[in-house]
Design goal:
Helix content: 10-25%
Order of helices and strands: EEEEEEHEEE
Low-confidence stretches: none
Mean pLDDT: 92
Strand content: over 45%
Number of strands: 9
Distance between the termini: 11 Å
Radius of gyration: 16 Å
Largest sheet: 6 strands, antiparallel
Structural class: mainly beta
């Protein structure tokens, strides 16, 4: 890929902390190195009404009012379809090395395992993501709906990779 990134902020939300508690943060690893961490305490059953969507926005200024929707969004889809698509093809390839999230070699089917999941100081390698990205700020908004509504907003600063 021709870009590097720096996570600026990572904020999460949940409609019911008893069913899904989520905690997120940006970690500073060194002078110019950053990562992100997340803990999910998953205590509910995903079913066929559980939906996932993700939207990507870009702007050059970092100003909230300047963000424009990018064509890289994950359209609203059933949780099972998300796991068998974007999760397996891109998400887990970027955070599988720094998390205990489930990995599936074959197609996933319900139930999703309950438990405590940790992403610890993750630095995404970009696998499964666009090879070329314009410089600027990106806002990634991920949302899951169903018995619990939860998700996160990640803001990144993207720069061209120096080779």
């Amino acid at each position: 890929r021709n870009w590097d990134y720096e996570p600026i902020s990572l904020k999460s939300f949940t409609s019911d902390e008893k069913l899904l508690k989520i905690q997120t943060k940006v970690d500073r690893l060194g002078r110019a190195e950053f990562a992100f961490s997340m803990t999910l305490d998953w205590n509910y059953d995903v079913d066929n009404t559980t939906m996932v969507e993700g939207d990507a926005y870009h702007c050059t200024s970092g100003d909230e009012s300047d963000y424009k929707l990018m064509p890289w969004s994950v359209p609203q889809q059933r949780y099972v379809d998300y796991i068998n698509g974007f999760y397996r093809d891109a998400f887990i390839k970027n955070v599988g090395h720094c998390s205990n999230l489930p990995k599936f070699d074959q197609d996933f089917d319900l139930p999703w395992p309950r438990g405590k999941y940790k992403l610890d100081k993750c630095v995404a390698n970009g696998e499964g993501l666009p090879e070329i990205a314009p410089e600027g700020y990106y806002k990634i908004v991920y949302k899951t709906t169903g018995e619990v509504e939860w998700g996160f907003t990640l803001i990144l600063k993207v720069t061209h990779k120096i080779i």
